[in-house]
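Supplementary Methods, section 5.1.

A reviewer requested that the exact input to the structure prediction be made available. We therefore reproduce it here, unchanged from the version used in the analyses.
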Amino acid sequence: MIKKGTVRLWLRTDKPNKKGAYPIHLIYSIAGKRQYINTGVVVFLEQYDEGEIMALPPTIGRKKYNLKIYEMPTREDAKRDNDLIKDTIQRIKRICDRFRLDGIAYTSEMVKAEFDKLRYPEKVEKVNNSFCDFINKYIVSNEGNRNEASLKVYRNLLKRLRNYNADVTFDTVDYDFFAGFQQYLIQSCNLANISVAKQISTAKMFLNLAIKKGIPVNNTFKAFQAKKDTDLEVIALTQLEFDILFDLDLSGNKRLDAIRDVFLFSCSTGMRYSDLAQLSHHQIKADFVLQSVAKTKQQLQIPLNKYSRAILEKYKDAPRPLPVISNQKSNDALHDLCKLAGINEQIEIVRYKGAQRVVEVYPKYELITMHTGRKSFCTLSLEKGMSAEQVMSISGHKDYKSFKRYVNVTTNESKKAMQVWN
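The structure derived from this sequence is encoded token-by-token as follows.
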């Protein structure tokens, strides 16, 4: 539902000019959010009566304000000012009507921005309407506030948008634009549907941000839904694979011994790589880890078990609780570790590029990354009898919709286990 705004006049008695007259502003408000618009009209206090402007009596003008005859606001002047205010209100009304006809859920900031464009066209910079410039400005101004993984997603989107249509503007980012951009990502960039959906959702995020900032945006983009893959594979360790890694003798390989400890700590706590990397000794309490999560900024209390305690005990005298290295080097070492441990089950990965079904088969060790530790924690915890709510409270999952796939995997594993009865 598109909310309507309200307009009222405001005599700025706090802003008198040198002659003692006051400007009249309009206050335009939607859902409690106000914008102030200068009408350009300036009046003396005695001229103003409940929104109506009148001529100034000559005696008051001469005695109180020391005005000359030609400076006196006449009836003609009052009529001109009244008409100017009415015209300003009508302009705002026409802007709102246009938004409603286009189906755009507008804000007071958007109305003010459109009004200024009509009133001061020479001051409107073309760059303000550029979608690519908007994204680039956001990336530059948030390089110290957002994590590098998110910024990488934004930079990839910006690069592909510029390659597809560098001149795209907020009023041309519509349903048809996204339909064409989706085809470009599939055909020219060779992206699978899951990656395409991520790019589309990120672009929509920036459009919604622009709307919040009062930038007029073509609202038809909201109707476009990117094709998504469903029932994606959850790559996680089985309990047997976890035990094999935990008991593996790596005394002669310091590199793999260190990555094994970091990875299994993630498997037994559900912690992300970014949180393992920032783990400090002071965050480790008697029975749990107390940490503010890097991704969501929420504070989690993560209980320790015999596996995570044993790993922490191993490094209790080291400068850091865990020997964490870069994410890429960690993933490379993990592949070597899991290959050595014989985790080589053949895994079929099915992806779609548009309507094309693409099937590839990999040995499991090639698919294991640091994020597999978090997935392993969820699946193994559910298999051991923990409730979904308990696992989510430890892992920090807020959305059951995204967590539900771990429940589905656990159900499938239970079905497999039941085959022993056959």
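The two ends are 58 Å apart (CA to CA). These observations are discussed further in the main text.
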